[in-house]
Amino acid sequence: MSGTERAVSAKPGTPAPPSAPGVHPKPFWSFRPRSDREAGDAVVSNFLLHWFPAKTYKPSLDWNYSFWLGTASAALFFLLVLSGLPLLLLYVPSVERAYGSVKDIEFVVTFGSWIRAVHRIAAHLMVAAVFLHLVRVFLTGAYKNGTGRGQRREWNWVLGVVMIVLTLFLSFTGYLLPWDQLAYWAVTVGTNIASSVPFVGPEMRELLIGGRTIDQATLLRFYVLHVIFLPAGLGALLAYHMWRIRKDGGLAKADRWTLGSEKTEAPPAKTKTWSLLGVARGQAPAIRAVTLEAADRTVNSVNDLVRRISIVVLGTFAVVSILACFIPSPLEEPANPMITPNPAKAPWYFLWLQEIVTDTTLKIGSFTINGAFLGGVILPTILLGLLTVWPWLDRSPAGAAGIWFHASRKRQNLVFLLVVLLVLAFTIVGTFLRGPYWNFYWPWQAWPELPTRI
Amino acid sequence: MEQRTSSPYPGKDRPVLAVIGVLLVVSTVVFAVTDHRKDWRWYQAEFRKMVAEKFGAEKAATLPAGMKQIWVKDLGRADRCITCHQGILWKGFETAEHPWKTHPVEPLRTHPVEDYGCTACHGGQGWAVESEKAHGPVHFWEEPVLGKAMGEAYSIQGDDKGALMQMNCNVCHRYDRETKGADLINLGKKLVNTKGCRACHVVNGRGGTIGPDLTYVGDKAAEQYDMSRLGGQKTAFAWHVAHLKNPKELVPDTVMPSFGFGTKESQALAALVLSWRRAPVPATYRPGVPRTDPQTTEEIAEEERMKHGPGAWFVSTGCFVCHSVSSLGVKSAAQVGPDLSTAVEDTQKRFGKTVDDFIRNPTGTMSVVLSRQIILTDAEKEVAIQKLREAFAEHQKQKAEPPSAH
Asked: Do the chains contact at A452 and B223, CB–CB below 8 Å?
């Protein structure tokens, strides 16, 4: 076939372009292949098709199954790397100059305040998106293996739990960098909770902050973690996470959808071969095949999947960009170890823990129950441990995978939702309803007026 | 090509994608425009017009445009005030409105703007280039501009409504007894001495221990004051004014007596105590700081004695830097050269010359010293020879009569 094609395309007088198997002479690939050869070429040279499947089951494209939260999280991560690059050139990680360099970014760098706002808002949204993604995967039982052989979805779930911890840590390390009061005291509260671990707590805190007080060593440690190790780790895990989704048969819903559907005979085609190059060369034997990827169940990933991903990714960018135009990033007074702001709060996604810490610190006579240990160490460890091993504890049938609130998973879904709601409730109380001295204030109650110097 | 059923998605997804594209363009326009539309551009344009009107277009063309700052490395300040306040060093805009007004010349003579910037004296947020954020008071910036507006808010007594600015003067001038132009602070300092604050309070390392040490009381955070009995503005300054007028009203169990201070006195003292801060002021910015190593009283007395003793000439001429003249009681700190008591003999031995010849035509080190550091006229050289002979005579006299003490 290729021989005749070449003979047809080669006009007399003009030498045919040199071509060898596997070589793609054009800088881009064709979106509208006119022949099998062009199609094969497009597949071989298309990076996206090596991350995405060539064909996509229609249910995978549903808006209301996955809500595309994983894609949104990945988009936010990409945006964070992108907006972090210019900040890398502007921010100075030293206790003397960090605050000033952030003021400069805010006031005099062209588009500086917008770039910083994009970075900050994307970071907050990413924590939220990743958390909601986890909630979605749990409630749909998407960590369960379906019908395919060799599926390892439970390990992708474990990977996801590690990634949410990395996301929180990325956000937490970024929190310190402006070196203002908010940063300094949020990190003080956070690392003090870590130090309540019995026996090794103080040593852990010392390792984390590089000394006994939060100072230059802490700033440098958090900076290097924030810009090198954590993003590199999260990026690598993200790529593996995505690849595993494909290897585990795609979304659980789509996987399930093929269950019980009839296998249809594919028309004999020269598209089935042991080597993709066979397609490109046109030498593939025409074989009869049985397929589940019947034409009426799938669409081409290009353009239908790519278009939807563009909607989610660009839509996320647009939302962050618009929010960044109107929500200025706060920068409080320069960090001052001598003055504790009242109240001193951890970052908002840890406030449910801080709230539990204060609620469980009880004094009964001379006996004190250490709330930091219970709320800051035991509880998160138990929750994270349970989350990690839950796929092995979940005994529901394979048919429950990929369905929102499947009847067989009713009880565990209810318990999980209850825990999620409690975490959210404690977060809301800690964020909005706690004032000076951690006293409770309704939103309509004014906090006592904060005094100023002059 | 394998054919598929027609995809149901493009019809809905394409318009959605288009809307998102529009949103992205809109947000780009919004942030680009907000980043460009800054008030300082207008202030600069207005000032350009004013200069063109007064001095001609040519002069106006020399005006710098864009964001400007004074970077004072010693004080760690980047003051961008001059982005809008372009007229401060221009003559002829003394009666113009802010921010185009000329700065009074007198304070700038001793405090050149390139060494001090603006905020070191005036307060305010030098980083900022927006009016409200630069002048304050704003959240999270505790150093508002201490100008007339602030003075009026506190009903500062007296003619100078901008007197609160003297609190910033006193950060460097805190050890002055009196500072020219800082009348409010001067009044406060006078009261500290006449009312005997040091009977109970330590100030700058001196004083009693009944009350708290006030040396760095200006650093005390506003949150650390008990404002519960204070009416009106809840600020550290207001607290001090009220507390000085009547201590028991704010702190019922205090032992601090009421001195019957009026508003003016209370304001002067409040401004003074709030200026007592642990500010990192470089030594060169502190007036009256000695920039030499201290000498002991014995060293000073010894130097005085040598200056007025029989060897005074060797001291005033500078010989004593290297040479002792032991017979005349002159002792060199360095003692690099030989004792000059025996120079008359010594030059003969060392250089094979009489001392007269040596002084007139020195060789070696002394030729360098006498041509570069201690330059003597011919007449002065004769005096030198004369003095060396006197020293030698004294030396021989002392040798002849052994010390009576032994």
From this structure: no
- Cβ-in-10-Å burial (0-12, 13-18, 19+) of B291 comes to exposed
Residues of B with Cβ-Cβ distance to A315 under 8 angstroms: 20, 23
Q: How far is B223 from chain A (nearest CA, A)?
A: 6
Q: Residue A130: its pLDDT value, please?
A: 98
The mean per-residue pLDDT over the stretch A163-168 comes to 96
What pLDDT, on the 0 to 100 scale, is given for residue A315? 97
- How many structural domains comprise chain A? 1
Q: What is the DSSP letter of B124?
A: S
Residue A266 covered by a domain: no
Residues in contact with A61: Cβ distance below 8 Å, sequence separation at least 6, in sequence order? A299, A304, A305, A308, B9
Which of A452, A23, A60 lies closest to A252, judged by CA? A60
Are the beta carbons of B31 and A330 separated by less than 8 Å? no
- pLDDT tens for B202-254 read 999 888 889 999 999 998 888 888 888 888 888 999 999 999 999 999 999 99
Q: Say yes or no: ipTM exceeds 0.85.
A: no
At residue A150 the predicted structure's pLDDT band, cuts being 50, 70 and 90, is: confident
Q: At what angle do helices A112-139 and A98-107 cross, to 10 degrees?
A: 100
Q: Tell me the pLDDT tens digit for each residue of A294-313.
A: 667 788 887 899 999 999 99
Q: Which of residues 237-296 of A touch B (CB under 8 A)?
A: 267, 269, 271, 295-296
Please report which helix (H) or strand (E) contains residue B70, including its range.
strand B70-72
Give the percent of chain A with pLDDT over 90: 47
Q: What is the largest CA-CA distance in chain B?
A: 133
Q: How far apart are CA B319 and CA B336, in angstroms?
A: 11
pTM metric for this prediction: 0.82
Q: A5 lies in a domain?
A: no
The third-level CATH classification (topology) of the domain covering B155-284 is: Cytochrome Bc1 Complex; Chain D, domain 2 (1.10.760)
The H or E element spanning position A367 is strand A367-369
Phi-psi region of B109 (alpha: psi -120 to 50; beta: other; left: phi over 0): alpha
- Which of the residue ranges A100-109, A153-162, A356-365 would you say has the lowest mean pLDDT? A356-365
Q: Decide if A454 and B128 are in contact by the 8 Å CB cutoff.
A: no
Side-chain-side CA neighbours of A309 within 13 Å: the count stands at 16
Return the closest-CA partner of residue B83 out of B34, B40, B127: B40
**Residue A193 counted as domain residue:** yes
Bigger pLDDT: A179 or A198?
A179
The DSSP annotation for A231-289 comes to HHHHHHHHHHHHHHHHHTTS-HHHHHHTTTPPPEEEEEETT--S-HHHHHHT-PPPEEE
The whole-angstrom separation of Cα B225 and Cα B221 is: 7
Question: Please, which residues have CB within 8 angstroms of residue A100's CB and are 6 or more apart in sequence?
Answer: A92, B76, B78, B127
Whether A42 is covered by a domain: the verdict is: no
- What sign results for the dihedral spanned by CA atoms B95, B97, B100, B105? positive
Q: Is B57 helix (H, G, I), strand (E, B) or coil?
A: helix
Interface of A with B in 381-420 (CB under 8 A): none
The mean pLDDT value for B168-194 works out to 92
**A56-60, A192-196, A225-229, B87-91 — which one is most confidently predicted on average?**
A225-229
A451 and B223 in contact by Cβ < 8 A? yes
Residues of the domain holding A165: 61-256+305-438
Question: What is the pLDDT at residue A337?
Answer: 85
Between CA A451 and CA B235 the distance in angstroms is: 5
Give residue A2's pLDDT: 40
The H-assigned helical ranges of A34-139 are: 36-45, 48-51, 63-66, 69-90, 98-107, 112-139
And the tokens for B267?
């304001």
In sign, the C-alpha dihedral spanning A96, A97, A102, A103 is: positive
Element (DSSP H or E) covering residue A291 = strand A287-291
